[in-house]
């Protein structure tokens, strides 16, 4: 691509060709240094992936998030909440009856056991052993109590 368009327009044009880019190929295609491309992304508005250690980018105008705040392009996941940490807290807090690591892994299409343990240790979420697995709940005591009651009601009906 030639440098005839202003950089932000070129950026948008490249994202219309492919909805997700890694920073090095994007910088190479734009013929700009990586810090400049990061600045263009920031000025335009972007999301970084919560999968692949945040190495994929898409413009804010591209994702069509589902009710859970997630959007996937192939195996690349993006979240309205931003990072994987914020996404986990958001999903757990928004769940009516808490979520297990397996449920979260299936929803997010990535493993998150270690991060869940760290969030629990820091008090960002709570957990309870239910059967053979840990179920994670919101850190807010009122919300967590409601989630636990809902989970108990589900198990009582079975």
Number of domains: 2
What is the mean predicted local confidence, pLDDT?
Answer: 94
> What is the terminal separation in angstroms?
60 Å
- What shape does the CA trace take? elongated
Sequence stretches where pLDDT stays below 50 over 5 or more residues? none
CATH class category label of the largest domain: Mainly Alpha
* Main β-sheet description: 3 strands, antiparallel
Gyration radius (Cα, Å) is 19 Å
The tally of helices reads 7
Describe the fold and architecture.
With 158 residues, the protein is an alpha+beta fold. It has two domains: 1-79, Arc Repressor Mutant, subunit A (Orthogonal Bundle); 83-157, Winged helix-like DNA-binding domain superfamily/Winged helix DNA-binding domain (Arc Repressor Mutant, subunit A), CATH 1.10.10.10. The chain is built from seven helices and eight strands, in the order H-E-H-H-E-E-E-E-H-E-H-H-E-E-H. The protein has a three-stranded antiparallel beta sheet with strand order 1-3-2. Strand 7 (125-130) and strand 8 (133-138) form a beta hairpin. The protein is elongated and about 65 Å long. The mean pLDDT is 94.
